[in-house]
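Customer ticket, subject: "Can you confirm the structure for CheR-type methyltransferase domain-containing protein?"

Message body: Hello, I'm evaluating your service for our small team and ran a test protein. I'd like someone to confirm that this is what the system normally returns, since I don't have a reference to compare against.
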Amino acid sequence: MTSANDYQLFVQGLKQILRIDLNFYKEKQMKRRLTSLRDKLGYTDFQSFLADLRHSSALQDVVLKRITINVTEFYRNPEQWNTLRTTILPRIYPENKRLVCWSSACSTGEEPYTLAMVLEEAGVRQYEILATDIDPFVLERAKEAVYPAQAIRNLPPEKRQTYFTQKGETYLLRKEQFRGKIFFRKLDLLHDLFPREFHLILCRNVVIYFTDEAKDRLYRKLSDALVPKGILFVGSTEQIFHPHQYGLHSVAPFFYQKQDVHT
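Agent reply: Thanks for trying us out. I re-ran your input and got the following:
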């Protein structure tokens, strides 16, 4: 069996086991990542790896963690969060008295909690944040809200004092101030149906791992999930070059607004 066939059969088997279709991810990057994991675990080919994977939930957890990318921190790209607060929020608030937001690949929670901080500091009192991820393990960590110092390195001292309690080498988020406003849920961006009627969607540092077909599919679904004049906030390497094909237009770097049906 050739190396290419070995990997493709693994992709097919993985789809059955984990319900994740790696055909929507850039093959070169994903194959390199999984080959490294396979070799580290002592397998000589993907088929022997797959055989054990079918019967080991622990091994399935290891593979899922390797597939999903969970590199994040509070206030990642601080200038973009400042743009959100000073330029973007005035476009959608207070026209909408209650903002409905979605952090679509929330990982361990840094992004939705950062969004909540920005909304609170901007004077938005009525809001709801849906925070989703494909990985149930990172969602549990997000709910616990315990972080290493690296995760809060972009936070100025006053924000650390306001929102965190230090315990040894970790920082505990004071979640009570966001109680009833942030909701965590498992969701696959490529295959699951999306909720609707969002004023703001964050989809940052996700599509860089997707094929062009998967990107196109995702942007159409995200646009459909926005209300007219709603905002899509993307990552610093994920500029949308032809936003009009998704019914969007650029209003600031990395921010796209859905066209109003009445204009």
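A couple of notes from the result: The domain at 78-258 is CATH 3.40.50.150 (Rossmann fold). Residues 3-18 form the longest helix (16 residues). Feel free to reply with more questions.
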